[in-house]
Amino acid sequence: MRRAPTWPRHAIMLAVCLLMLVPFYWVIKTSLTGENIYAWPPSIIPVNPHLFNYVDVWYLIPFPRYLLNSVIVTIMAISGNLLFNTAAGYALTKQFPGKRWIVLLLLSCMLIPFQATIIPAYLITSWLGVLNSWLGIALPMLSTIICIFIFKASFEAVPRSLIDAARVDGLSEWRIVVRILLPLSKPAIATNVILNFIWSWNAFLWPLIVVRSPDMQTLPLGLARFLSVMEDTTGALFAFVVMVLVPGLTIFLMAQKEFIRGLTSGATKG
What CATH superfamily classification does 51-263 receive? Predict the structure, then answer.
């Protein structure tokens, strides 16, 4: 039986990809030219591109300091998620009294928006004495329920006989997690890293509440300050956006296959 040609499907996929890349191209082009985005007809090719907007972003505000704060907070959030979500996900694979109610409680907590928990989160952060600090900014993001269930699904997909064999060999529970489950759960790890990077990197409301000094501001807060400094903000704003988006896009492109596998790890077992 003669197979149908695949080039029409590939052509359609290529056209869709190019269409989705248009906004990214437009942001980069505007950041290099600073042209009026409302001009008609729009220019497709950049006219007199330059890097002055990126220089303005770097020097007119303490961008390196904002970048450092965002990097430290993001690393703390990712590290906390990997530690706590791994432990919680492994615990939920066990059978114990009240497990069903704990799962239902976690699922019900996912229905509560973060804005509804800001006041108790602020009071707890203040009681711990970590306001206006990296730990205070990262504290509500040290564990996320959806990532707990991602680890749970990934761990449950590992053959039970493998875990029983490791336990017979004398491995403790933590060594089973570190030596057996985590090496087999790279998609879940990649999913946790990508999701928590995006959430912590782009967080605005919580840092706005707990940060007091300008030296502790993260990139989203720095963007608000930058807009108050610049008069003609079109090109500089787009340059700021590009500088903030590049790390997230890079991490996602490097781990996109593992990310997709992590989201579907619980669909099959074995």
Answer: MetI-like (1.10.3720.10)
